[in-house]
Amino acid sequence: MDWIISDELGLTVGHLVGWGAAGAMIIGGVAPYIPQYRQIKRSQDADGFSLYVCLTLLIANTLRILFWFGKRYELPLLIQSIVMNITMFVMIHLCVNVRKKNQIVRARERIFTDMDRKYFWAWTDFQSYLDCMLVFSVLGAAITYLLIEVSPFVELIGFLAVFTEAMLGAPQIVKNCQNKSTEGMSICMVIMWTFGDMFKTAYFVIRDAPTQFWVCGSLQVSLDIIILFQVWLYRRNTAAARRLHRGD
């Protein structure tokens, strides 16, 4: 009887741990953007945050959703992708509005239907970002539907999804290099990225997720560390930029 109770208790604890880990996967991916959102909202300055971070995650998570239809993986990872896409649109909406408010001289409107490559993902209205991702999603869904039975194609989608997400930090690294500063970027966001990506990679390994997931997760952690190194490297420039911004 004791063995049965112990076994049942172990099963219950195991379920709780599993549910907790799944919940952490869903919420943990979004959490790093809360301090960045609050910082942009408070300072009314979105220049330090690269919108290409949002593009990277939107593409990666849309591909991961398409991959689910070809090769079913754990449901929490699918939910995480949906929640992350919503979060990225919230971030884009904030950045577009802030940049509009900060315009001293009213610039010409740049929209998706202009089809101007020079201003790709630098549009001045939020609707253009929605339209772009809608076109990408519809085309991706149509191609996936036609080739869903082709195993190499499905595996390619999975690889592209996690590899694109693994390169998440790259736009921010480039932005920091261009500015020679990390002013406007939330350090808290990057720290949360790092710990979140470490947890996520460990989760992929433990839960026996497809190989693409944990390999690219390791690459993502490496890029996070590079950004943290930039925080140290550009610390003097960042401090000077903050003093200038405060008007000291």
Could you characterize what this model shows?
Helices cover 77% and strands 0% of the residues. It has helices spanning 2-30, 33-43, 51-70, 75-101, 126-146, 151-166, 169-179, 187-206, 211-233, 235-246. Helix 6 (151-166) packs parallel to helix 9 (211-233), helix 7 runs parallel beside helix 9 and helix 8 packs antiparallel against helix 9. It is globular and about 55 Å long.
Summarize the structure.
With 248 residues, the chain is mainly alpha-helical.
Question: Which descriptors apply to this entry?
Answer:
membrane, 0% strand, 248 residues, transmembrane, Solute carrier family 66 member 2, mainly alpha
Helix content: over 70%
Low-confidence stretches: 1-9
* Secondary-structure element series: HHHHHHHHHH
Major sheet, described briefly?
none
Name the beta content range: under 5%
- Please identify the oligomeric state: single chain
Helix and strand content put the structural class at mainly alpha
Topology of this structure?
Layout: H1 2-30, H2 33-43, H3 51-70, H4 75-101, H5 126-146, H6 151-166, H7 169-179, H8 187-206, H9 211-233, H10 235-246
Helix pairs in contact: 1-4, 1-8, 2-4, 3-4, 3-5, 3-6, 3-7, 6-9, 7-9, 8-9
